[in-house]
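User: Show me a protein chain along with its predicted structure.
Assistant: Here is one chain, sequence first, then C-alpha coordinates.
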Amino acid sequence: MGGRNRYHGIDAYAVKLVHMKSKQLCRQPGFSPNDRLDIEQELMIELAERLPTHDSARATREAFITWVVLQKIADLIRSQRAKKRRINVEAISLNDLVFISEPGSLEERWATLDNEIFQQFTGSNFRSTEERIDLDIDLERVMKNLPKELYHLCELLAKYSIADVARKLGIARSSLYRSIHELRDAFDKAGLRDYL
Protein backbone atom coordinates (compact mmCIF):
# COMPACT_ATOMS: atom_id res chain seq x y z
CA MET A 1 0.00 0.00 0.00
CA GLY A 2 2.98 2.32 0.58
CA GLY A 3 2.18 5.89 1.61
CA ARG A 4 -0.76 6.17 -0.79
CA ASN A 5 -4.25 6.48 0.65
CA ARG A 6 -6.48 4.41 -1.61
CA TYR A 7 -9.49 4.72 0.73
CA HIS A 8 -11.06 8.06 -0.20
CA GLY A 9 -12.89 9.85 2.59
CA ILE A 10 -10.94 8.05 5.35
CA ASP A 11 -8.05 9.96 6.92
CA ALA A 12 -4.41 8.91 6.77
CA TYR A 13 -4.27 7.85 10.45
CA ALA A 14 -7.10 5.35 9.94
CA VAL A 15 -5.56 3.96 6.74
CA LYS A 16 -2.16 3.53 8.40
CA LEU A 17 -3.69 1.86 11.47
CA VAL A 18 -5.85 -0.50 9.41
CA HIS A 19 -2.89 -1.45 7.23
CA MET A 20 -0.69 -2.17 10.26
CA LYS A 21 -3.36 -4.06 12.25
CA SER A 22 -4.46 -6.19 9.31
CA LYS A 23 -0.83 -7.27 8.75
CA GLN A 24 -0.54 -8.17 12.45
CA LEU A 25 -3.79 -10.12 12.40
CA CYS A 26 -2.63 -12.14 9.38
CA ARG A 27 0.14 -13.58 11.58
CA GLN A 28 -2.36 -14.92 14.13
CA PRO A 29 -3.57 -18.56 14.12
CA GLY A 30 -6.55 -19.02 11.83
CA PHE A 31 -5.50 -16.21 9.48
CA SER A 32 -3.00 -16.01 6.63
CA PRO A 33 -1.33 -13.28 4.50
CA ASN A 34 -3.94 -14.04 1.82
CA ASP A 35 -6.61 -12.67 4.19
CA ARG A 36 -4.99 -9.23 4.50
CA LEU A 37 -7.01 -7.34 1.88
CA ASP A 38 -10.29 -8.86 3.09
CA ILE A 39 -9.44 -7.88 6.67
CA GLU A 40 -8.54 -4.35 5.57
CA GLN A 41 -11.86 -4.01 3.76
CA GLU A 42 -13.82 -5.26 6.77
CA LEU A 43 -12.04 -2.79 9.03
CA MET A 44 -12.62 0.07 6.58
CA ILE A 45 -16.32 -0.76 6.22
CA GLU A 46 -16.65 -0.80 10.02
CA LEU A 47 -14.91 2.59 10.23
CA ALA A 48 -17.07 4.08 7.48
CA GLU A 49 -20.20 2.98 9.37
CA ARG A 50 -19.00 4.04 12.84
CA LEU A 51 -17.14 7.31 12.20
CA PRO A 52 -20.35 9.36 11.86
CA THR A 53 -21.16 8.38 15.47
CA HIS A 54 -17.88 9.83 16.81
CA ASP A 55 -18.41 12.32 19.64
CA SER A 56 -15.40 14.64 19.99
CA ALA A 57 -16.52 15.53 23.54
CA ARG A 58 -15.93 11.93 24.60
CA ALA A 59 -12.76 10.98 22.69
CA THR A 60 -10.34 12.26 20.08
CA ARG A 61 -10.88 11.10 16.51
CA GLU A 62 -7.70 8.99 16.64
CA ALA A 63 -8.72 7.34 19.93
CA PHE A 64 -12.17 6.56 18.50
CA ILE A 65 -10.68 5.12 15.30
CA THR A 66 -8.29 2.94 17.33
CA TRP A 67 -11.14 1.69 19.52
CA VAL A 68 -13.36 0.83 16.51
CA VAL A 69 -10.51 -1.02 14.74
CA LEU A 70 -9.55 -3.00 17.84
CA GLN A 71 -13.19 -3.93 18.53
CA LYS A 72 -13.64 -5.16 14.96
CA ILE A 73 -10.41 -7.18 15.16
CA ALA A 74 -11.66 -8.81 18.37
CA ASP A 75 -14.91 -9.69 16.55
CA LEU A 76 -12.98 -11.20 13.62
CA ILE A 77 -10.87 -13.33 15.99
CA ARG A 78 -13.98 -14.55 17.85
CA SER A 79 -15.71 -15.35 14.57
CA GLN A 80 -12.68 -17.28 13.27
CA ARG A 81 -12.44 -19.32 16.49
CA ALA A 82 -16.16 -20.13 16.39
CA LYS A 83 -15.84 -21.21 12.75
CA LYS A 84 -12.89 -23.47 13.65
CA ARG A 85 -14.86 -25.04 16.52
CA ARG A 86 -17.79 -25.76 14.19
CA ILE A 87 -15.49 -27.38 11.62
CA ASN A 88 -13.84 -29.58 14.28
CA VAL A 89 -17.14 -30.84 15.73
CA GLU A 90 -18.60 -34.05 14.37
CA ALA A 91 -22.09 -35.13 15.42
CA ILE A 92 -22.11 -38.58 16.99
CA SER A 93 -24.64 -40.62 18.92
CA LEU A 94 -23.86 -41.94 22.37
CA ASN A 95 -25.85 -45.05 21.41
CA ASP A 96 -23.61 -45.94 18.45
CA LEU A 97 -21.90 -49.29 18.84
CA VAL A 98 -18.10 -49.07 18.91
CA PHE A 99 -15.36 -51.70 19.09
CA ILE A 100 -13.49 -51.94 22.38
CA SER A 101 -10.20 -53.64 23.18
CA GLU A 102 -11.65 -57.13 23.70
CA PRO A 103 -11.59 -58.96 20.33
CA GLY A 104 -14.91 -58.68 18.55
CA SER A 105 -16.57 -56.84 21.46
CA LEU A 106 -18.99 -54.01 20.82
CA GLU A 107 -20.15 -51.48 23.39
CA GLU A 108 -22.43 -48.47 23.19
CA ARG A 109 -20.32 -45.31 22.99
CA TRP A 110 -21.68 -43.90 26.28
CA ALA A 111 -20.28 -46.89 28.19
CA THR A 112 -16.75 -46.15 26.91
CA LEU A 113 -16.71 -42.52 28.05
CA ASP A 114 -15.26 -41.50 31.37
CA ASN A 115 -17.70 -39.87 33.77
CA GLU A 116 -16.65 -36.26 33.14
CA ILE A 117 -16.87 -36.55 29.34
CA PHE A 118 -20.25 -38.28 29.61
CA GLN A 119 -21.55 -35.42 31.75
CA GLN A 120 -20.27 -32.86 29.22
CA PHE A 121 -22.05 -34.72 26.38
CA THR A 122 -25.33 -35.07 28.23
CA GLY A 123 -25.30 -31.76 30.12
CA SER A 124 -25.94 -33.67 33.35
CA ASN A 125 -23.28 -31.84 35.36
CA PHE A 126 -24.82 -28.36 35.36
CA ARG A 127 -25.60 -27.91 39.05
CA SER A 128 -25.20 -24.89 41.28
CA THR A 129 -22.39 -24.84 43.85
CA GLU A 130 -24.90 -25.37 46.68
CA GLU A 131 -26.46 -28.37 44.89
CA ARG A 132 -23.03 -29.92 44.33
CA ILE A 133 -22.09 -29.46 48.02
CA ASP A 134 -25.40 -31.01 49.14
CA LEU A 135 -24.93 -33.86 46.69
CA ASP A 136 -21.38 -34.51 47.94
CA ILE A 137 -22.62 -34.70 51.55
CA ASP A 138 -25.45 -37.08 50.59
CA LEU A 139 -23.12 -39.12 48.46
CA GLU A 140 -20.58 -39.52 51.24
CA ARG A 141 -23.34 -40.63 53.62
CA VAL A 142 -24.59 -43.30 51.19
CA MET A 143 -21.11 -44.51 50.27
CA LYS A 144 -20.15 -45.00 53.95
CA ASN A 145 -22.94 -47.56 54.26
CA LEU A 146 -22.00 -49.50 51.12
CA PRO A 147 -20.23 -52.87 51.28
CA LYS A 148 -16.49 -52.52 50.62
CA GLU A 149 -16.71 -53.94 47.06
CA LEU A 150 -19.52 -51.57 46.03
CA TYR A 151 -17.73 -48.61 47.64
CA HIS A 152 -14.63 -49.39 45.55
CA LEU A 153 -16.77 -49.83 42.43
CA CYS A 154 -18.43 -46.47 43.03
CA GLU A 155 -15.01 -44.76 43.25
CA LEU A 156 -13.90 -46.41 39.99
CA LEU A 157 -17.10 -45.47 38.14
CA ALA A 158 -16.57 -41.85 39.12
CA LYS A 159 -13.26 -41.87 37.21
CA TYR A 160 -13.48 -44.50 34.46
CA SER A 161 -15.81 -45.87 31.81
CA ILE A 162 -17.69 -49.12 32.43
CA ALA A 163 -15.42 -50.95 29.97
CA ASP A 164 -12.31 -49.64 31.78
CA VAL A 165 -13.69 -50.61 35.20
CA ALA A 166 -14.42 -54.14 33.96
CA ARG A 167 -10.83 -54.43 32.70
CA LYS A 168 -9.36 -53.03 35.94
CA LEU A 169 -11.38 -55.43 38.08
CA GLY A 170 -10.80 -58.34 35.70
CA ILE A 171 -14.48 -59.26 35.53
CA ALA A 172 -17.01 -59.70 32.73
CA ARG A 173 -19.21 -56.72 32.01
CA SER A 174 -22.31 -58.82 32.77
CA SER A 175 -21.04 -59.25 36.37
CA LEU A 176 -20.19 -55.56 36.53
CA TYR A 177 -23.72 -54.63 35.42
CA ARG A 178 -25.15 -56.75 38.27
CA SER A 179 -23.00 -54.81 40.76
CA ILE A 180 -24.03 -51.50 39.15
CA HIS A 181 -27.66 -52.59 39.58
CA GLU A 182 -27.01 -53.08 43.32
CA LEU A 183 -25.38 -49.64 43.45
CA ARG A 184 -28.38 -48.16 41.69
CA ASP A 185 -30.73 -49.70 44.26
CA ALA A 186 -28.69 -48.18 47.10
CA PHE A 187 -28.71 -44.76 45.44
CA ASP A 188 -32.43 -45.07 44.63
CA LYS A 189 -33.25 -45.67 48.28
CA ALA A 190 -31.25 -42.56 49.21
CA GLY A 191 -32.99 -40.48 46.53
CA LEU A 192 -29.74 -40.10 44.55
CA ARG A 193 -30.59 -42.01 41.37
CA ASP A 194 -29.54 -38.99 39.26
CA TYR A 195 -25.97 -39.33 40.51
CA LEU A 196 -25.55 -42.66 38.70
